[in-house]
Amino acid sequence: MSSFVPVVQAEKISKRFNGLMAVDHISFEIHSGECFGFLGPNGAGKTSTIRMIYGFSPLTGGRLLVFGQDIQVHLREIKARIGVCQQENNLDPDLTVWENLLVYARYFNLPAPIARERAEAWLNFMGLSHKKQSRIPELSGGLMRRLVIARALIHNPELLILDEPTTGLDPQSRHQVWEQLEQLKAKGLCILLTTHYMDEAEQICDRLVIMDKGRILVEGVPRTLIKQHIGGNVIEVGNPSSLLIDFLKAGQIPFELLPHRLVIHTREGEKLFSRISGEFCGSGCTLRMATLEDVFLKCTGRGLRE
Amino acid sequence: MISSSPLESVSSSHSKLRTPNYITWRFIRVWQRNWDVYIKTWKINFLPPLLEPMFYLLAFGAGLGYLVGQLTFSGRVFSYTAFIAPGLLAINIMQNAFFENTYASYVRMYYQKTFDAIMATPLTVEEIILGEIFWGACRSLMATALMMLILSFFGLLSYPWSLGILPIALLGGLAFGAVGMCFTALMPNIEAFNLPVFLFITPMFLFSGTFFPLEQLPFWAKGLAWIFPLTHVVDLTRALALNTLTLLNLWNLFYLLIFASIALPLSLRLMVSRLIH
User: Fold this and answer.
1) CB A90 to CB B117 under 8 A?
2) Which stretches within chain A are classed as H helix?
3) What's the predicted TM-score (pTM) here?
4) Out of 3.40.30.10, 1.10.3710.10, 3.30.1340.30, 3.40.50.300, which CATH number does the structure's domain A8-220 have?
5) Least confident segment among A49-63, B10-24, B49-63
6) Residue A133, SS3?
7) The CATH number of domain A231-289, selected from 3.30.70, 2.40.128, 1.10.10, 1.10.357
8) Does the beta-carbon distance from B123 to A107 stay under 8 Å?
9) A72–B18 C-beta distance less than 8 A
10) Which residues of chain A have a CB within 8 Å of the CB of B29?
11) pLDDT band at B15; cut points 50, 70, 90
C-alpha cells in the first residue's frame, strides 16, 4: 500500500442519535506514524466519532475510509487491522490475565503458538508479566488499563484507538501509560485517542482537533495552536480592581473577567506583567506559559456541560 | 436543515447491504470462549444435571408414583417414573439453553461488556449472538447426556432409540436459546427476566405433557399446549425413550424446526438493533 494513503480519511461524516447531531459533518485525515488526538468537553462527539472509526456505529452520512477502504463495506478487514481500547474496561472477568490475551487472539484467528509468543511479549512490554495468572478483579485500575492496551495490541494492529486511556488513573499510572504510548509511537504505530486531559494531549499528540457540539473547532499541532490562539503567556489577576480594568480598556488589551479573577492572553507577557504587578496587584498576580487548556477554554467556553 | 449530498445516499445504501451474509464460521470463537470458562469450573457445572434427575425421581417416582402407580401411554402400560423421565429430560433441555441465553448472556452483554470487547475484533454482532445461542444449545446437549447417564442407570431409557434424544436436545436448545436471546435483546434490566420465566417457562414446565398426559386436559388447553415448543420436545423425547415412535412424531420435529428457524434470525435481528446504534 502506498504510504500516501492516509490511515483514516473522514469526509463530512455525521452521526445522528434520536434527532440530535452528535457528529456534524466533520472532515479530517490521520497519517501513518502520527498520534492524533480528539479533545472536547463531555458530549462533544469525540466518542461518537471514534466509534464510527472502529466500526461500532454506522455513519448517518459522509464517507469514512480507513487504510483507504470504505468502513461501510470492508468493516471486517479494517477491524482486523486496528486495536481498540474502549472507555469502559471490558476485560473478561471470567478469565485470568493470560487467558484474556489468548482468548482475544483467537477472535483474530491467530494460531495458538503465535498468540502465546505475542502475549508474552506484550505483557513484558506493559510490565504485567508478574500478573500473568491473576484474575481480573484483583488488578488495580492502572494494571487493568495496561492489560486492555496489551490486549488491543495482540494482533499487531496498524492503528491503535484509545478512548480516554487515562481517565480515572492515579498520576503514577497515567505517566506510565503515557510512557508506553510514547514507546509505541516510536515504533511507528499510528495512535488515535480521545481525552479531556490537556496535559495528556499536549504531551503525546502530534496533531489534534478540539471538538464541541459535534463540530471541529480547531485543528493543528499543539504548540502552534497555543501560539495562534493565545500567544505566549497568560497573566492571571486575583480580585482585579476597577483601576486595572480601566487601564486594560484604555490600552485596548483584550481580557476575560471571571467572578474573582481576570485573565489576559498576551504575546508580550513580561513587559505587561511587570506593569500590572507593579501598579494593580491587590491579591496576587501570576504570569505563566500559555497551555492547551487556555486554547481549549477559549474555544469551548467555560460553561459547564451535561 | 436537510442536506442531501450524494455521499450520504451512497453510505446509507451500503449499510443496508451490509447486514446479510455476514455470518461466518468465526462464531465458533464465541463458543470456544464460553467453553473455556465452563471447563474451568466443570465440577460445579456437572453437578446439577447429575443430581437434579435423582431428586425428581425420588420425589415423583417414589413419592407421587406410589399414588399414581401405572398409566397407559400410546396403548402401552408404563410406570409413572418411566413416564416422567423423558419429561424431565425435555424440561432440562428447555431450561439449560433458556437460562444460559437469558441471565448468563445478559451478564456477559450488560455487566461484563464481553460483547463490546468482541465487537472490536473481526467478529460481527450476528456471529457473537449465534455463538452464544449455539453455546446455549450445547449446554442443553451436555446436560442431557449427563442426565441420560443417570436415567439409564435406573433402566428408564430404551436403547438404541434413546440416543436420538441427543440431536433433539441440540435442536430444542437452539429453539429455546433463541427465544431466550430475544428476551435478552428486549429486557431493560436483569430483574425483568422474571416476566418471561413466569409467563413462558413456568406454564410450559407444567402444561406440556411433562408430568401427565395431555389427554387429561380440556380441549382448549390441549390446543394451547400444542403451541408450546416444549410439548413437541416432550413428545419426541418420550417417544424415543419409551420406543413408541410413530410417523406422527415427524410433526413434532417439523414444528421445532419451524420454530427455531423463526426464533433464531429474529433474535439476531433484535440483538443487532440493541447493540448497534
Assistant:
1) yes
2) 46-53, 75-79, 97-107, 112-125, 141-152, 171-186, 198-204, 222-229, 242-251, 269-279, 292-300
3) 0.89
4) 3.40.50.300
5) B10-24
6) coil
7) 3.30.70
8) yes
9) yes
10) 106-107
11) very low
